[in-house]
Amino acid sequence: MKALLIDDEQPNLENLQALLAAYCPQVEVCGTALNAETATNRLHVLQPDLVFLDIQMPQQNGFDWLRSLPAYDFEVIFVTAYDQFAIQALRFAAVDYLLKPIAIDELQSAVERARQQRQLKEQNQLLQNLMHFLKAGQPPEEPRIALATAKETRFVKTSEIIRCESSNNYTMFYLLDGEALLVCKPIFGYDDLLKNYGFVRCHQSHLVNKQFIRSWKKEFGDFLVLTDGSEVPISRAKKEDLKKALRLS
């Protein structure tokens, strides 16, 4: 997630940036701001996923700054030295709030909740896009999926994805041109989305594009052999559903 840090004291910005770098590798600090005016300018340019917002700032505090925005789609984590602001922060539907000095475990928990909330919103938006096309009576001409890697967000055609493989909270996307993209999201977040475009779940950790399946190998276990030469295991729990998806039963 790209994060914008807003605080009227430079040492606080530097401290928070250091904590995020050391303990929250899923967060990339894309910018900082010492006041509301600068924050607004940075917001339009950087378009962050997450904003760490100091509540007490001169001229325009954190709450007033949010009210001044016509709309916003980033997650907010308020940062304050005063606990009495907590209730008001929650009324703004913030993901969380942190008390200064910031505790590492609370910072990590707040970031994780923000990540989950962001993921949920993205999935809901993708679902709304799909429903729009379905109601219009036609599928999207060039269906694409947004894959956020550590360095960029790539927009990839679903027809160019050969398979997906999970590793804990990460998913590796193997593409038709041989490239592999590592995304910081678990594979179940893509299951319902991609099944609308011909993908099947053959294993807890594997999602495969049916158009790239070459054969079903039954030697030393069950495997799908794909057109790129890779072999993907088939779990017992998924075998019957896979047969139905491939019209083998």
Automatic annotation (TrEMBL):
GO terms for biological process: regulation of DNA-templated transcription. Residues 145-248 form the HTH LytTR-type domain. InterPro entries: CheY-like_superfamily, LytTR_DNA-bd_dom, Sig_transdc_resp-reg_receiver, WalR-like. One of its GO terms (cellular component) is cytosol. It comes from the Bacteria. The keyword Transcription does not apply. The modification 4-aspartylphosphate is found at D54. This is DNA-binding response regulator. It comes from Larkinella punicea. Keywords: DNA-binding, Phosphoprotein. It holds the Pfam family LytTR. Residues 2-115 form the Response regulatory domain. GO terms for molecular function: phosphorelay response regulator activity; transcription cis-regulatory region binding. SUPFAM superfamilies: CheY-like.
